[in-house]
Amino acid sequence: MNHLRRPRRLVPLDERYEETAADPAPAADDQVGGAMAGERLRRAVLALPEELRYTVTALFWGERSVAEVAKHEGVTPVAIRKRLKRALAALAAALEEEDVR
């Protein structure tokens, strides 16, 4: 009786249907690539001078605002933005240099 109340759609397991079924998990090569990119970024951030490293980690990984970081460091928000600009330039250069190798 339940099969009359709640009919279910039957899908054959032919090859043409297997190709259309989407796998929600990311592909293995995407996971490895993401892990490698994350490791490269981590090494580049750790190579930054202490004040720049703190600024980057507090803003991006600590999810703090520029004003909060400035208050904690005892400087102006403009100084934090300048530090961030220098840090991002240094990170870009370090990552580009690593790509060249």
Structural overview:
It is a single chain. With 101 residues, the protein is an all-alpha fold. The protein has 6 helices and no strands. It has helices at 2-5, 15-20, 28-46, 50-61, 66-73, 77-100. Helix 3 (28-46) packs across helix 6 (77-100), helix 4 (50-61) packs across helix 6 and helix 5 crosses helix 6 (77-100). It starts with a helix and ends with a helix.
Q: What key phrases describe this protein's structure?
A:
101 residues; mainly alpha; 6 helices; elongated
List the helices and strands and how they pair.
Elements: H1 2-5, H2 15-20, H3 28-46, H4 50-61, H5 66-73, H6 77-100
Task: Summarize the entry for a quick read.
With 101 residues, the chain is mostly helical.
Q: Based on helices, strands and strand pairing, what is the structural class? A: mainly alpha
Count of DSSP H/I helices: 6
The strand count comes to 0
Radius of gyration: 24 Å
Helix content: over 70%
What percentage of the residues does DSSP assign to strands (E)? Answer: under 5%
Mean pLDDT across all residues, rounded? 81
Order of helices and strands: HHHHHH
Q: What is the rounded distance between the termini?
A: 68 Å
Shape: elongated
Biggest sheet, in brief? none
Low-confidence stretches: none
